[in-house]
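Per-residue structure
===
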Amino acid sequence: MSEGRAALEAALALKPDYAEAHWNRSHWHLLHGEFRSGWAEYEWRLKCPGLNSYGRSFDVPLWDGGPLDGRTIYIHWEQGFGDTIQFVRFMPLVKARGGRVVFECQAALANLFETLPGVDLLVTPEDNYVEFDCYAALLSLPHLLGTGLDSIPPTPFLTSRRHGLSASIFRRKKPQGEGRYGSGWSGPGGRRTATTETGRSRWMHWDRCSMCRAAGSTASSSERPERRSALRGGRRQSD
C-alpha cells in the first residue's frame, strides 16, 4: 500500500493535473479513513477519461455545499444501484441547507425511494425537465457536506408503497422471534453482469454471512429471472 501511495505522489509531482492519479489517491485516503481528503480527491473522477460520463452539465451553477436559502437543487445519480442506495443517506443533510431537493434516480429504484427522507421531488431520467437553481452529482455529496469518518449520516430505512412479486418472499409468515434476511447477489446487467468474471467477483457466498447461519434465521434471495440460470457453486435461491 505504501509503495502504491509513493507511486501516486511521484506521478502527481510530474503531472499535478493527472486526473487518474488523483482519483486513485482518493481510494488510498478513503481506505485509511481519511474521508475529507479522500472525498476531495474523489472529485477528480469527473475529469477522468472513461469516468467523466458520471458528471452532467447544466446551465446553472454547481452547488458549492453552502446554504441553499430557498433555492432548488437537482441531485442526479451517476453510478450503479448500490452506489445510489448507499449515498441517498446524504439527502436529509442537503435538505437541512434550507432548499428544495429534487433527486433524479434510476427508474428501477424509483419505487424504493418513494418515501426517502429529505427529498421534495423524486424524478427519473424519463421524466420531463424540471427547473432548478443549482445541481450536484450524488457521489459528490460527502465532499460538499464535509463528511468525515466521525460524521457519516445513518442509513435511512427504505420502504415502498408498492410491492411486487419479488417482495412477497419477505412477507411470508414466520415463527415468533425468527429472523429473516434478504439479499441481492447480482447487478442489473450491462457492462457488469452475473455472467461475467467481474460480476462473479461481486457475488456473496452464504457461508460468509454469519447472520444467515444463525439459529432460527431464514435467508432468501430474490433475483431477476435472467439471473436464476447463473446460480452455481452452492449459491442458493428462494423464490
User: Anything to note?
Assistant: The first helix runs from residue 2 to 14. The longest strand covers residues 72-76.
